[in-house]
Amino acid sequence: MTARIIDGKAVAAAIRDRIAGEVAGLAAAGVVPGLAAVLVGDDPASAVYVDGKERDCRAVRMRWLGVRLPAGTTQRDLHREIDRLNADPDVSGIIVQMPLPGGLDAVAAQERIDPAKDVDGLHPVNGGRLLRGDPTFVPATPLGCQLLLAEYGIPVAGANVVIVGRSQLVGRPLALLLSLRAANATVTLCHTGTADLAAHTRRADIVVVATGHPHTLTAEMIVPGAAVVDVGINRRADGSLFGDVDFPEVARVAGAITPVPGGVGPMTRAMLLANTLLAARRHAGIAG
């Protein structure tokens, strides 16, 4: 068996085209969505990610309102900047790029963002709404994973889904998202404390891996035909990227699989745009 490749790059491009059309429609009504990304310090990887988000915004004609603060920024100064963005009517969505320099409290910064502008979906209010079953802003990566499965016709309702990794950004919100009535999956969340990980993954129709560790999932750990979503990003010595899944071997057994790069990554960026568009619509009182 050779797995179908789940092409996140192509799906994300189609989503960006749709968003660009909707942004143009809003602009005609006098509403221009705006995204503010706060970057503190000079971490090279963070700068690359923020630059990519700026390109995405400009490509769909959203307003880009990036903020760069020095590494010596205090918590008070960071909060003051977030407060300014909260009060700015041109700003639809706010993200604080992680990681923050040492000494800064990331959770406090996330909680400072107005929940109505929290397009990363990390504010406790938005996390609570997801837990309650009526989400507004869902973290971009889980949202992208769900949409990829839907776009490729991979059944989620009634499926056994195993998620490996319990991070705040991916594992936990994705487990909640897929267990809502609208998705109706049976979800098992595995982590570093899970005994016999393979015993769980071998029972899964869908396996999502988000650990940050290469070869977390190998071919003998899945059943033939399972769908595999690789969220991990690791870097080789030559700079090339690869995921948490042993891709060449798992692809021989799986029914469908996301590549790295070109799978979940492009969807994360596209879903951030989608959340920003949603925030702008909600602020303007426009249904969408």
Fold and architecture overview:
The longest helix is centred in the first third of the chain and has 21 residues, at 8-28. A six-stranded parallel sheet has the order 1-12-9-8-6-7. By secondary structure, the protein is of the alpha/beta class. β10 and β11 (241-242) form a beta hairpin. The protein has helices spanning 8-28, 44-59, 75-87, 106-112, 124-132, 140-151, 171-179, 197-201, 247-250, 264-284, and strands spanning 4-5, 34-40, 63-64, 67-69, 93-96, 160-164, 186-190, 206-209, 227-230, 234-235, 241-242, 256-257.
Strand and helix layout:
Layout: E1 4-5, H1 8-28, E2 34-40, H2 44-59, E3 63-64, E4 67-69, H3 75-87, E5 93-96, H4 106-112, H5 124-132, H6 140-151, E6 160-164, H7 171-179, E7 186-190, H8 197-201, E8 206-209, E9 227-230, E10 234-235, E11 241-242, H9 247-250, E12 256-257, H10 264-284
Parallel strand pairs: 1-12, 2-3, 2-4, 2-5, 6-7, 6-8, 8-9, 9-12
Antiparallel strand pairs: 10-11
Helix pairs in contact: 1-10, 6-7, 6-10
The CATH architecture of the largest domain can be named as 3-Layer(aba) Sandwich
* Percentage of residues in strands: 5-15%
The parts where pLDDT drops under 50 for at least 5 residues are none
How are strands sequenced across the largest beta sheet? 1-12-9-8-6-7
Quick one: how many beta strands?
12
Mean pLDDT: 97
Residue share in helix: 40-55%
What is the count of structural domains?
2
Query: What is the general shape?
Result: globular
CATH topology of the largest domain: Rossmann fold
